[in-house]
Structure formats: C-alpha cells, structure tokens
Amino acid sequence: MEKCSHFVESLVARLAGGSANFTVTDTFTAHCQKHGQYTAKRYQSGRVSPCPTCLKEKKDEEFQEYAEEIKRHNSMQAAKVVREKLAQSVDIPPRFIGKTVANWQPENDAEKAIKKAIVNYGFAIQSGKAGALILHGNKGTGKTHLACALLSMRKAQMGGSVQYATVADLFRKVRESKRFSSTPESELIEEYAKFDLLALDEIGNQRGDDDEKRILFDVLNKRYEKALPTVLVSNLTREKLEEFLGEVLWDRLQENSFIVSFSGKSRRVARNIADGFSD
Ligand SMILES: Nc1ncnc2c1ncn2[C@@H]1O[C@H](COP(=O)(O)OP(=O)(O)O)[C@@H](O)[C@H]1O
Ligand SMILES: [Mg+2]
Ligand SMILES: [Zn+2]
Known about the structure:
binds zinc ion, single chain, five-stranded parallel β-sheet, binds adenosine-5'-diphosphate, 279 residues, two-stranded antiparallel ribbon, binds magnesium ion, 2 domains, Rossmann fold
C-alpha cells in the first residue's frame, strides 16, 4: 500500500516537472482565518500547503457548479428530445422540427401584431372556438414555420390528431386513389376532415384538375361544417386567394377566423447563409 502511494506521489511529482517541488522540507502549525489552526507543509519550492478545509470547500463548490451545469445540460437535452419526438409524431417537414411560436421573432410592429394573432389563435384552439387561420403573403416570411409551430403546440397541449399537408400531397392522394381505386373519394375527404387540427400549405401553387380541386374544397368545407380549426397557408395575395377559393368558401372561412398578411422580406436567404446550407 505504502509502496503504491509512494509510486503515485513520485509519478505526480515527475509529471509536475521534478520531485524537488514536492519534497516537504518542514511542517508547522498555520492559521486559517476561517477554520483556525491546521498543520501546514512547506515544500522545497517554498510553497506552503493551504488550509485543507478551505480546499475541500472550494472543491465542493466547484463540484456543485459542475453538477448544476450537468443538470442544466440534461434538462435542455431532455427538452430537445421531447420536442423532436413530438415533431416526429406530428409529421411536419424535418426543416421545421423545433420551430415554435416563441422562436419566430418579430422585427417590427407589423410582425409583432402577427405574432399576437398567432398566439390568440392558439388560445382559440384551446377553447375550442377556432375557425380558420389564413396565413398568406410573401415567401420566406415564416408562414410554414408558424403553421408547424401551431401543430406541435396543439399536440403538446391537448394531444389528439394533428396533420401537416401541402395541397400537392392532397392532390397526389386524389390521383393515386383514382389510379389504383384504393381509397374512395369520400374516405379521402373524411380522412382530412377528421384531424383535430390540419395545416394545409401551398394553397394556390397548383391549380389542380377538377377532381383535385373539388376534393380540396370538400375537405375545407367539411371541416367548416364540423367547426374544426384549419390553418390555410398560401403565397397568394388576399385577393388572389379569395379568387382561388371562391366567394362561397371564402365567406364561410371568415367565421371565427384570423387572416394574417405577411408583407415582410424573405428570411430564407439570410438564414440559409447563416446556417451554411441552401434550399
Ligand atoms: N420571424 C421569423 N423568426 C424566425 N425565423 C423565421 C422568421 N421568419 C422566417 N423564419 C425562418 O425563415 C425560413 C423560411 O420560413 P418559412 O416558414 O419557410 O416561410 P414561408 O412558408 O412563409 O415561405 C424558415 O427557416 C423559418 O424558420
Ligand atoms: Mg412555406
Ligand atoms: Zn480554511
């Protein structure tokens, strides 16, 4: 045992740059202002050993800080994992995982008003009184970001079924169901009409053929009849969107709805340069 500790000491001494520094030349009674008397060692280098109680306190403090750092890190990791799990279960595009209402940052008063409207729509969902949320306007302004954030929020706060889909996704399903006669139209409409919250993105990007368009309208209409909330996202202007959806549906969508216009400039370019990738 003694041999072993001697070995360790001499190893430490060698690593520290010479055994001379660790040779104790004398011991004496020293005084710590906080802890009183202790036996101090004087080394050949002239260095005097500090109060062992102070040393222990300092180490405990450092350990405490370290432990807290780990705890902080772990809870952040846990929150991240929960967020990602949630986003995966919500089935949103991977690029929008982790996008929240909180991390959508307004840069001016108009955007502050947008954020307020989104938060209010979130409250309306919670109280079961939300109709449609129409997010329309310039590209790259965070419309899909906010739609996905609302889906994750609905899922986190209330559970249930939420779904993100582009109109292209819906149209593809219509075409597939026709080609393979797999799902009857009515079932397809019912599938999209039953989600507790649906976000339908890129409205108006594709005009669609008559069947595709009819089904899009039936889905939106069914959801209106069931008083289920729908987030409609479009790059069209308000006039063009109204024209695309038609007067009857547009009027129905006004009930308990929020219409939010995005007129800012695109964040996509600046952000992607900052992130080191491009669309
Ligand atoms: N106000 C904002 N705060 C934070 N990120 C934003 C904001 N606006 C846009 N972004 C980010 O810019 C990118 C493009 O937004 P996106 O939602 O795809 O725009 P849109 O659907 O309106 O075309 C996304 O990465 C999004 O998170
Ligand atoms: Mg988008
Ligand atoms: Zn001390």
